[in-house]
């Protein structure tokens, strides 16, 4: 049974939907003060509207999927599976504190990277499987967090490694100061190999005198967190845990 | 330079994709069908970009394309009901939208109730309650009179509210 109202329901609905003129709305407000059953109906309408918004909120909280990026801006997504979305600079909640380990190992990889870079002119991070033997693959497989590696015109740094539901994830940052571009990507290893779940790019603007470049749109990065959540990623590995994971080839 | 819609058109269209996906999800009830619908709508928009008048509302234009394609598809596939896979639905609540179990249940009920509404009512309710269009804008998208928008909304809510445990006189 639906609630009975004194005032006609279409007017109450128009009020709840913000369709009334200020004068009409004021008249309804006066009426509601004296008619709790009508107020309750308006409350229900607003609760239903709010529930509808939340029930279908998923797409507006997610990055635009790759298929639409490719369809609508082909030049922005050069590789299959690429997901490049603008992102707001994230706070470095996982400071690159994993210092110092595996120096020799890291140096070996740096050397290898320079030789292996397939497209050194303008390497970017794009979503999709990471080819074994590629520069990115080398970094993901063996570079400890917090140690930048030359990558094309910029430098690539693994920010942190996290355990995930089916393996591990690593957050990487590609910083190209000359081109004023920064990319952050989330790459995950699911037992079979590495793939980039999502890559986000941001234009940089100069920071204060003598400081590093800072992203132009400073705000917390909720987007990456969503992808981490989707992967069931946990807290960042300690330096020791990460070293062990590298040594074991990210096997679980 | 490849022929086709200009940069602004494409950029504006990309910016609309999240809302179009939300609209399509509310119509189809599941993310896969919703995204297929949005993809078809974007392809149609690119093919017919010349018909779009710059300066007019692209969102209304795109909502109309999405809705028309959806209705066409529904007419062709009468037997296929709206399916709402629970795991898909959970995926699409934004992850953190519904942490409390009651809240999850409520959002599940909302999706279920939407899926049961007749198509014309579902489209109107989605445009007004979720997309936030005015009655007049919704009427233009659907190419129906404002009075029809209001009556469809009214019928949609009469059906929806009791299913959500609302408007059953519990406070009266």
UniProtKB/TrEMBL annotation, chain A:
The chain crosses the membrane at residues 97-116. Residues 12-33 form the Putative zinc-finger domain. The keyword Transferase does not apply. It comes from the Bacteria. Keywords: Membrane, Transmembrane, Transmembrane helix. This is Putative zinc-finger domain-containing protein. InterPro entries: Anti_sigma_zinc_sf, Znf_put. The keyword Transmembrane applies. Pfam families: zf-HC2 (PF13490).
From TrEMBL, chain B:
GO terms for molecular function: DNA binding; sigma factor activity. It comes from the Bacteria. Residues 16-78 form the RNA polymerase sigma-70 region domain. Residues 109-160 form the RNA polymerase sigma factor 70 region 4 type domain. One of its GO terms (biological process) is DNA-templated transcription initiation. Keywords: Sigma factor, Transcription, Transcription regulation. PANTHER family: RNA POLYMERASE ECF-TYPE SIGMA FACTO, RNA POLYMERASE SIGMA FACTOR RFAY-RELATED. Belongs to the sigma-70 factor family. ECF subfamily. This is RNA polymerase sigma factor. The lineage of its organism: Bacteria, Pseudomonadati, Pseudomonadota, Alphaproteobacteria, Rhodobacterales.
């Amino acid at each position: 049974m639906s609630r009975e109202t004194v005032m006609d329901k279409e007017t109450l609905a128009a009020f709840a939907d913000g369709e009334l003129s200020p004068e009409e709305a004021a008249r309804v407000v006066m009426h509601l003060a004296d008619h709790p059953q009508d107020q309750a109906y308006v409350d229900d309408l607003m609760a239903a509207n709010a529930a509808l918004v939340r029930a279908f909120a998923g797409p507006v909280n997610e990055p635009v999927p790759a298929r639409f990026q490719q369809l609508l801006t082909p030049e922005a997504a050069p590789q299959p599976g690429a997901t490049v979305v603008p992102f707001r600079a994230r706070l470095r909640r996982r400071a690159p504190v994993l210092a110092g380990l595996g120096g020799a190992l890291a140096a070996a990889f740096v050397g290898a990277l320079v030789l292996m870079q397939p497209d050194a002119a303008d390497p970017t991070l794009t979503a999709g499987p990471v080819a074994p033997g590629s520069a990115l693959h080398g970094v993901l497989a063996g570079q400890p967090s917090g140690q930048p590696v030359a990558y094309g015109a910029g430098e690539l740094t693994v920010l942190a490694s996290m355990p995930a539901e089916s393996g591990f994830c690593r957050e990487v940052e590609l910083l190209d100061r000359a081109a004023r571009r920064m990319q952050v990507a989330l790459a995950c290893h699911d037992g079979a190999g590495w793939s980039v779940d999502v890559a986000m790019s941001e234009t940089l603007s100069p920071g204060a005198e003598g400081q590093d470049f800072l992203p132009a749109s400073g705000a917390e990065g909720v987007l990456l967190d969503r992808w981490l959540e989707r992967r069931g990623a946990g807290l960042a590995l300690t330096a020791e845990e990460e070293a062990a994971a590298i040594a074991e080839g990210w096997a679980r | 330079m490849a022929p086709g819609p200009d940069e602004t058109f494409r950029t504006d269209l990309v910016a609309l994709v999240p809302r179009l996906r939300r609209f399509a999800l509310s119509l189809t009830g599941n993310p896969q069908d919703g995204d297929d619908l949005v993809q078809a709508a974007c392809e149609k928009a690119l093919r017919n970009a010349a018909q779009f008048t710059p300066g007019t509302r692209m969102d209304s234009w795109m909502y109309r394309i999405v809705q028309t394609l959806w209705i066409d598809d529904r007419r062709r596939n009468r037997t296929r009901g709206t399916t709402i896979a629970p795991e898909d639905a959970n995926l699409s609540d934004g992850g953190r939208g519904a942490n409390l179990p009651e809240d999850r249940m409520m959002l599940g009920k909302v999706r279920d109730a939407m899926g049961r509404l007749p198509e014309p009512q579902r489209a109107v309710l989605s445009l007004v309650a979720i997309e936030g269009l005015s009655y007049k804008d919704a009427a233009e998208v659907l190419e129906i009179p404002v009075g029809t928008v209001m009556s469809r909304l009214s019928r949609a809510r009469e059906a929806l509210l009791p299913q959500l445990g609302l408007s059953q006189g519990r406070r009266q």
